[in-house]
Amino acid sequence: MYDLLIGNIKELVPLTEDESKLIQKSFEPVHLKKKQFLLQSGEYSNHMRFISQGCVKLYNLDELGAEHILQFGISGWWINDLYAYLTQKPATFFIQAITQSTVLQIHRDRLNELFDKIHMMDRFFRIKTQNGYVALQERTINNMSQSAEQRYLEFIERYRDIEQQIPQYMLASYLGVTPEHLSSIRKNIRDY
Amino acid sequence: MYDLLIGNIKELVPLTEDESKLIQKSFEPVHLKKKQFLLQSGEYSNHMRFISQGCVKLYNLDELGAEHILQFGISGWWINDLYAYLTQKPATFFIQAITQSTVLQIHRDRLNELFDKIHMMDRFFRIKTQNGYVALQERTINNMSQSAEQRYLEFIERYRDIEQQIPQYMLASYLGVTPEHLSSIRKNIRDY
DNA sequence: CTATTTCATTAAGGTATCTTAAGAACGCTA
DNA sequence: TAGCGTTCTTAAGATACCTTAATGAAATAG
């Protein structure tokens, strides 16, 4: 269970055997049933979270109560309400399991200890966040310059593994369209 | 000129006098006239860039040649085609001065040297990128859940200093609407 | 195995935003 | 100060996407 985590870190930075063990000891596993919450709006997000197994969603609710999915997370991804984590303010997002999932999480205090003890942990999260930033930038550009149909086609090509774990209306929410509209987009594609 | 840069870093992490000097020596100033390019699509982005004075825009062109502004940068902000910088692939974005500007830039090789010499530089860019990520996430959510009018109102409230340095059609591009539509939004607001 | 909930589809009418085109205001520069 | 490029506005018609509502299919619970 921890191999995926340590492997994920070692992909980007070198770690000694001792460091790996120290990191491993700092994370605790959390098991989630389908639809169970890892974080709810209003709660404090005191952990960084790595998805070991399963599929979760990060979303918020607007004034009208409509759900907007900001991110999906599957095995090997990090997920959090980063703003709430960093500022220690109440979360504005929900993190909920879409399928039964296992998450490895580390408390902020433990992680900050790691940052001080292991220079490479600062670097790992720097690089990881940079990569996340770049991906989000690309999504922003795509949202600005592409039609819903183009965004849909790009998503299913790029994230086929995610598409297969989630219902279609959640994908619609992520893409920023109504389920009805996504359905009609798919119909158009079928009809060439 | 360098005070703003060093101050910007020291806001987030501590630096010794020696470290500050080393950092300062690693950056070089670039002066830009209005409309001059700091980076063009197809070029390599080998520098991290800090805006010391003025106002610049980061944008790309879609297949139809339409311009989409991803980010503005003013005095005290960092700006880059981060994907191109990190992957060392040709840039897909342009960075262009909106007003006469001064930029302090550091070559990737120098910056990587700093990362190895100064642990706090890794931390600084980790935190900086985390903050940028959070801001971009919020923008993404806003784009998904708010009308163009709401996004406009939020922008001018939050970034009054930027709004005053840029023409309205660039703000329209940033907000993801046509200049005509932004104009009509402003008219509606005027008429209450 | 049936009942119930969840999810996907279809269609009609409505709204936000775009496209195109034209003209007006502004600010440089000759 | 005249002229020219840049920016902003207005308006009409087009389009993408939404809302609502109803139906059917699939998954899940009892």
Q: Helix amount of chain A, in percent?
A: 40-55%
Number of strands of chain A: 8
Which pair of chains has the greatest number of interface residues, and how are they split between the two chains? Answer: A-B, 30 and 30 residues
Classified in CATH, the superfamily of the domain at 2-114 in chain A is Jelly Rolls
**Continuous helix count of chain A:** 9
Mean pLDDT of chain A: 95
Looking at how many chains there are and whether they match, the oligomeric state comes to: homodimer
Rg calc of chain A: 18 Å
- Major sheet characteristics of chain A: 4 strands, antiparallel
Strand order of the largest sheet of chain A: 1-8-3-6
Q: Which CATH C-level class of the domain at 2-114 in chain A is it?
A: Mainly Beta
Low-confidence stretches of chain A: none
Structure description:
Chain A has a domain at 2-114: Jelly Rolls, CATH 2.60.120. In chain A, 51% of the residues lie in helices and 22% in strands. Chain A is built from 9 helices and 8 strands. Chain A has helices at residues 2-10, 17-26, 82-87, 108-117, 119-145, 148-158, 160-163, 168-175, 179-190; strands at 28-32, 37-39, 47-53, 55-61, 67-74, 78-79, 94-97, 101-107. In chain A, the strands form 2 sheets. A 4-stranded antiparallel sheet of chain A has the order 1-8-3-6. In chain A, strands 2-7-4-5 form a 4-stranded antiparallel sheet. The structure holds a DNA duplex (30 and 30 nucleotides).
